[in-house]
Amino acid sequence: MTLAWIGALAIGLSLGLLGSGGSILTVPVLIYLVGQDEKTAIAGSLFIVGAIAAGGGLQFAVQRVVSWRSVALFGLPSMVGTYAGAWLGGLVSGTVQLAVFATVMLLAAGLMFQPPALDAGPRTARAAWKVVLDGLAVGVLTGLVGVGGGFLIVPALVLLGGLPMHLAIGTSLVIIALKSFTGFFKYLEVLERLDLSLDWNPLLVIAAVGLAGSFVGRSIGKRVSQRNLRRVFAAFLVAIGLLILGQTLPELIPSRPAGTSVDVGVSHL
């Protein structure tokens, strides 16, 4: 359990340091350090991510650094998408979900390797219906693989929604909390149907340690280079993503039973 606590601290620190990306560590922590199966880990990840984001989002809300218009336009549709993604997750195997998750990790790493273009101030606001579609798409991803999606939400709110960076981070945390809890409650139905159950002890411990780590990370982040942090974290995501793909892809590729011959169309008399 000690390794899981360290993993929880890493989740919180990265959220506090980067404003996004830390929740993508939760599923690997639950699978490889706690020993849970894929579907239970995804459900637990949604709870942990929701709890950590709710704690941070509440702080931003008290400071009035949340765009409630964006929460309505982006966040509410993302809740619908998350519910749909969780339903979809009940129809596919855990191996498929894990492979998609690893692909998302590599996508996140690619975004983090790019020089951030988020500090140039607010852009022209995106059309409301397009923001709604953005929220739906990110929500489906959240429900399917159990990530908060902050690495997609923050750039979307800044580059597409026209929000300044500090407002986008606070708004993102509120949105992540809303859609993560939506997906979690849907996954409770999925787990019940599969006769699986949650072990609440590690979930509560990891959520508490992660929340504390996020506050520490936010304090540290004010004094270190964000660009270097993003690159180190991106390299870590690449390593973990490739490791997960290396384990899941062989299970997804059908293999021919040993000793079978290839039919070349020759009839035997």
Q: Can you tag this structure with a few keywords?
A:
mainly alpha, 10 helices, 74% helix, disordered C terminus
Would you write up a description of this structure?
- With 269 residues, the protein is mostly helical.
- 74% of the residues lie in helices and 0% in strands.
- It has helices at residues 2-18, 26-33, 38-62, 68-89, 94-113, 128-145, 150-160, 165-193, 200-221, 226-252.
- Helix 2 crosses helix 3 (38-62) and helix 7 crosses helix 8.
- It starts with a helix and ends in a 17-residue tail after the last helix.
- 49% of the residues are buried.
- The model is unreliable at 261-269 (pLDDT under 50).
Encode the helix/strand succession as letters: HHHHHHHHHH
Computed Rg: 20 Å
- Major sheet summary line: none
Low-confidence stretches are 261-269
Proportion of residues in helical segments:
over 70%
Distance between the termini: 65 Å
- Strand fraction equals under 5%
**Number of E-type strands:** 0
* Overall SS class: mainly alpha
User: What overall geometry do the principal axes of the alpha carbons give?
Assistant: globular
Mean pLDDT: 79
Count of discrete alpha- or pi-helical segments spanning 4 or more residues: 10
